[in-house]
Amino acid sequence: MSVRKERQAISIEPPVEDLDPAVENALGTPAKRGSIYGRIARVKEMTPAQRRKVEKDRARTKETYDLPAWLIEAIEQIARKYGVPKSNVAAHLLTAGLKDVLEGKINLGWVRKISRSPRYEGLLENPEAIDKSEISRFCNGK
Fold first, then answer.
1. Which of 25, 42, 106, 128 has its CA 20 to 30 A from that of 50?
2. Which string of DSSP letters, residue by residue, matches 77-113?
3. Residue 89, pLDDT score
4. Neighbours of 72 (CB within 10 A)
């Protein structure tokens, strides 16, 4: 007596992740997000206003810095007081500080310490937090 086994259908289509992006594009399957064909498809779907926004964003210069929480909070409070973006406040404060360093009003040498990292010769000691009451007093105009 023989036992009948159920047969399973075998798919002859390769999994989508194994396809070449050019083949995906030719077959009309959605291209992967990072592929050049996926980017081309997204650009084709954009309106002219969206394309201008992308170009404007691409032209911006951005940088990320690790800052202490008290400094971020101070920048936020000042931005709220004047009704301006936080990045605007940070840019002006950095510019004012840079001018003072270049004019010799601020000397960063005395806060420099030796770094244990082979990447840097030295590090600047963390600045002390400014008293929150001082920031509040400034922002509230008292």
1. 25
2. HHHHHHT--HHHHHHHHHHHHHHHHHTTSS-GGGGEE
3. 96
4. 13
How far apart are alpha carbons 128 and 70 in whole angstroms?
10
Place 10 in a pLDDT band, splitting at 50, 70 and 90. Answer: low
53/107 Cα distance (integer angstroms):
41
CA angle 22, 24, 25 (to 5 degrees): 65
Query: How many Å apart are CA 122 and CA 119, to the nearest integer?
Result: 9
For tokens 């009309």, what's the residue?
A: 28
Contact present, 93 and 85 (Cβ < 8 Å)? no
Single-letter residue type at 78 = I
Contact 51, 42 (CB under 8 A): no
What is the distance between the alpha carbons of residues 136 and 78, in angstroms, rounded to a whole number?
9
**Residue corresponding to tokens 């920031």:** 135
SS3 content of the chain, % helix, strand, coil (to 5): 55, 5, 40
Structure token digits, residue 120: 């840097």
For the chain, report the end-to-end CA distance as a whole number of angstroms. 99
pLDDT in tens, 21-31: 677 666 665 55
